[in-house]
Amino acid sequence: MPPESGSFLQRLALLLTTAAAVVVFLDSDTPAGFIEGLTGKPTSAWMKEFGSLSREIIVDAFATEEPTEDKVNDSPDPTREELACRSAEKFLTAVTRAILEKETDELVI
Q1: Which of 56, 67, 77, 78 has the CB geometry, 3.0–4.6 Å to 82, for a possible disulfide?
Q2: pTM for this one?
Q3: 62-83 burial by CB neighbour count: b if 16+ within 10 A, else e?
Q4: What is each CA distance from 42 to 19, 26, 51, 59, 108, in whole angstroms?
Q5: C-alpha 61: how far from its chain's center?
Q6: What is the pLDDT of residues 61-70, one digit of tens each?
Q7: CA 44, CA 49: separation in Å to the nearest integer?
Q8: Are 55 and 14 in contact (CB under 8 A)?
Q9: End-to-end CA distance of the chain
Q10: Nearest CA to 62 among 89, 80, 75, 48?
Q11: What digits encode the pLDDT tens for the residues 6-47?
């Protein structure tokens, strides 16, 4: 029996299918060559960086550290959206930096 429309299982299946499709697509030669030509780093380096950012998010999300009074008063725990935004910000900053560090003659064909 298939899961109900909009259920957790259906969303999970869609997420996993999409993630697998993106990984397979990026692992092929054409997109990998494009990404390496654009940024100067191979796709594997970007996936390593993305994995590192994901690990940071997971560690922060499951941290068992008791918040101190200063921590509680200073800032509330970030929401999932804020964590995703920060992760995307770090990734986009790294990609932009890699592109801007390339010489102009390397960027122009």
Answers
A1: 78
A2: 0.40
A3: eeeeeeeeeeeeeeeeeeeeeb
A4: 19, 10, 15, 26, 19
A5: 15
A6: 776 666 555 5
A7: 9
A8: no
A9: 54
A10: 80
A11: 778 788 888 888 888 887 777 778 877 887 887 888 878 877
